[in-house]
Amino acid sequence: MAGEPQADCLFCKIVSGEVPATVVRETDTTVAFRDINPQAPTHILVIPKVHYPDATSLAAAEPQVAADVLREAGAGAVDEKLVETGYRVVFNTGSGAGQTVFHAHAHVLGGRGLNWPPG
């Protein structure tokens, strides 16, 4: 069921504590942790504690939680001292866009120049 933890979801297992992660922030609705395959000197993931396959389905079903994810992405950027030099927040949606874990999540990237267009 949408919003419910999924037994086969890596990020649901991180939320439950079943899989360890280097957590940098946590709220009632979100968890932020360091990416195990960083694409920039700073690369954190911000996930909702509820399970939705992507950002669009999360926003449609629980817009306040989607806002919480975005707010925590910004707070994580502040904590990591990325604000002055700039940072990127990315939501990949679908395998063709590079999404590999189908649990909504934001990538916060910074600490180096980020070219445009990406990819």
Helices and strands, in order, run as HEEEHHEE
Distance between the termini: 33 Å
For the largest beta-sheet, the strand count, sense and barrel status come to: 5 strands, antiparallel
Give the strand order of the largest sheet, numbering strands 1, 2, ... along the chain. Answer: 1-2-3-5-4
Discrete helix count = 3
Nearest-integer average pLDDT: 96
**What proportion of the residues is helical, as a percent range?**
25-40%
Q: What class, by secondary structure content?
A: alpha+beta
Hey, roughly how much beta strand do the residues contain? 15-25%
Which regions are unreliable across 5 or more consecutive residues at pLDDT < 50?
none
Count of individual beta strands: 5
Shape: globular
Radius of gyration: 14 Å
Task: Describe this structure as you would to a colleague.
Helices cover 26% and strands 21% of the residues. It is built from three helices and five strands. The chain has helices spanning 10-16, 55-61, 63-79, and strands at 23-26, 30-34, 42-48, 87-90, 106-110. The chain is globular and about 40 Å long. The model has no long low-confidence stretch (mean pLDDT 96).
